[in-house]
Amino acid sequence: MTVIDHRHWARYLQLAVDERREVQGIGAQIDGLPLDDAYAIQDALVAEKMFAGDSLAGAKLGLTSKAKQEQMGVDEPAYGWVPASSVLGAHADVDVCELIHPRVEPEFVFLIGDDLSGADCTADQVLDATERVVGGIEVIDSRYEAFKFTLPDVIADNTSAARALIGDQGIAPGDADLTTVECTFSVDGEVKGTATGAALLGDPAECVAMLVRHLARKDRGLRAGWLVLAGAPLGAEPLGVGTVATASYSHFGDVVARGV
Ligand code: OOG
Ligand code: MG
Fold first, then answer.
1. Does residue 159's CB lie within 6 angstroms of at least one atom of ligand 1?
2. What is the pLDDT of residues 80-90, one digit of tens each?
3. Count H helices, E strands: the chain?
4. Where does the chain have alpha helices with state H?
5. Best exposed site among 35, 152, 231, 239 by fewest CB in 10 Å?
6. Do residues 233 and 183 make contact, with C-beta atoms less than 8 angstroms apart?
7. What is the CA(1)–ligand 1 centre distance, in A?
């Protein structure tokens, strides 16, 4: 059995971030990279960022909608972390020169009010622990060549997390059925797609419950004050200098990212 050096691969990915360049997929270099090792590389990568002075703002899910799974050719959700340094406001300029080949996608974002953990966590428990649900736009930036990856690759790469714009309106859970909240995503005034919360595995709160159950495998959980990105209900679009991407939500107001 080959021993996989998680810290080595974490440094490999962090160097790609620091040098703003694409790197070859890890799966292409380690045959059959197990998911547990991919998550261990992710942990080492996030630990390295924390050691460099960052902190955690929360967690995220990726690949929780058919639109995203089909766009990326990966048919299972993945979990990652949101560093505090990556969080931006509801209307934000995103410096694309700091990134490799960024894309933007709309997000349903849960603002967690109470600590939440447990291997049997349900969507109802998620709603009870949630203070507000707001809209967002995530800037994703795979560190891999041509934005192509396998499931273990994207897990190791902290699910392509790069920046997260967090809306400032939103609703308390219970004020509306999240599965019916509608999002229209436009780029430079052209509508790219419309979807409701139901696009996220049937229910965005169930996505967050899946994340909590995943974290329980390592005795972890969500903390009060964290945010959770439940995943994009629509495919991602390229973000270049001058691109203006707008996510308009029926109950959450607008979130706007501008590439500069
Ligand atoms: C992986 C991250 C996916 C989402 O919301 O589905 C993600 C990627 O597409 O690069 O964040
Ligand atoms: Mg996302």
1. yes
2. 999 999 999 99
3. 6, 13
4. 6-19, 35-51, 66-72, 123-129, 151-156, 204-216
5. 35
6. yes
7. 31
